[in-house]
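Researcher: Let's continue the batch. This sequence belongs to 3D-(3,5/4)-trihydroxycyclohexane-1,2-dione acylhydrolase (Decyclizing), and it's 608 residues. Same format as the previous ones, please.
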Amino acid sequence: MSNTIRLTAAQAMVRWLSVQTTEDGARYIDGVWAIFGHGNVAGLGEALHGIGDALPTWRGQNEQTMAHAAIAYAKASKRRRAMAVTSSIGPGATNMVTAAALAHVNRLPVLLIPGDVFANRRPDPVLQQVEDFDDGIVSANDCFRPVSRYFDRISRPEHLLTALPRALQTMTDPAKCGPVTLSFCQDVQAEAHDYPESFFAPQVWKIRRPQPDSEELEAVRAALEAAERPVIVAGGGAIYSGAEQTLLDFAQAHNIPLCETQAGKGAVDWQAELNLGSPGVTGGDAANAALAEADLVLGVGTRFQDFTTGSWTAFANPKRTLVSINVTGYDAGKHGALPLVADAKAALERLGAALGDRRWPGRDSAARATWYAATDAVMAAPDTAGLPTDAQVIGAVQRQATPRTVVMCAAGTMPGALHTLWRSAPGGYHMEYGFSCMGYELAGAMGIKLARPDADVVCFVGDGSYMMANSELATAVMRRVPFTVVLTDNRGFGCINRLQIGTGGAEFNNMYASSNVKAQPEIDFVAHAAAMGAHAVKAADISDLEAQIESARGRDIPSVIVIDTDAGPGTGAGGHWWDVAVPQVSDRAQVQDARETYDQQTALQRID
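Model: Same format as before. Here are the structure tokens for 3D-(3,5/4)-trihydroxycyclohexane-1,2-dione acylhydrolase (Decyclizing):
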């Protein structure tokens, strides 16, 4: 009979998590973010206190943003490490559902441990319990089911023996990777069980590297051989695979130009001659021109989201073939693509060997040079008075960037502008654009800095996103996690305001000036950030912004630099059509005109 150790279920969970390691010996779950309530304070709270630094606990301000920080940590770690987040039942748990959706869309690992109702049902309905009149086993935590890659309800202490290994199997599986929810009944957290000592033996979690199927590989090789103008679209999977150098070597060996999605940007240095920049809606002219002519589009670790494909109008060659290298069969087969289901690095190595010394003819480099000249112009410091554009703000940060700079964002104007304009060093770009979740920015910046302490993290955030979720700025101050925040204040939701006007709508309810308010707000963002302990300043102009960016380096707390911007102009360069449905019936002539354009563009969509 094996030896056992008597522990509460919560104590067993944290002890088990504390001995799960990566191949280099680091903790795989590198700490637990926690806000305690009646659903987890007595059980998990006691257990986390007891485990101490073997599995450190971090206190945040909001369950959603704690989870955002954990997700950013995993993304910045290239999915090699992760964090856990625990909440009480009720609103604490449902606050995390948005973050779970974000992680699910972006294929990022996070372990969510919301407290749940009493398994024994004696005090039902307990405070904050959501009751289903027709289903006795439903709780609020069932909201996590569609946005979790693995969901389990721990309603007996021994459930941990199977649930915990399944959780980490999911999180470390490159094909299934995503959020895991272990809904932990609060009475079960405190119940004791005699666990086998062997359950707590340290375990190393390796990220497998699936090899390509020989028949799929041959089909892709033949398709490439037959192509005359192939183009590579590199996605986040190239980075998570650790295939950055392999991708560049493959492109250079066969002379195939490449472009990078939001998740893939920074895989290859922007200065590489074959790197044409960004594709699609937020794309540059050089990349989009190449994609329009391409007779074969080779996706590497991308799910071909609509921004990448210009809502399936960017790949305009009627003879084009779509090829998708992806570790997930679901993504590899999208839109009739010729699939190569495999790890990106392994697939590129095998495909490169199969192609041998095959090289495609060189392309005219003038398009790339012309594109960067155009971006130089829109990012240049203004030579006239007036509020700067977002592009000019990006230019100021770009001129102060170093090889250690990592720029990040999530929603609003800046994600599109940064994808189009930013010139990223390898590993210098972090964008949450799968879910494009407002409020990810400040928490995400903290998560990046925790994962990459040597990086110079610059967070771009608009006034709208800042107003939605800013409280983890206080957490970063308390934990002495420094990063730089560039807060662009255009007095509303400028990005969606432009989209509203661009689709023929009247300016309405996006900018404060066009909202139903009795007084226009005058929000002192500098005072607000300073009140949470950050170093906060107002930049007078672009020149002052550059100076403040440089001054921020070396502080041990976050620096917030506020600058007023012009809400009107867009990026000023690049771009492509995006499918945003326009009403078929409207009294507005502008809407009628926009609908005519919309019908013309949708006729060009190719979704096979």
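Researcher: Any comment?
Model: The longest helix spans residues 63-76.
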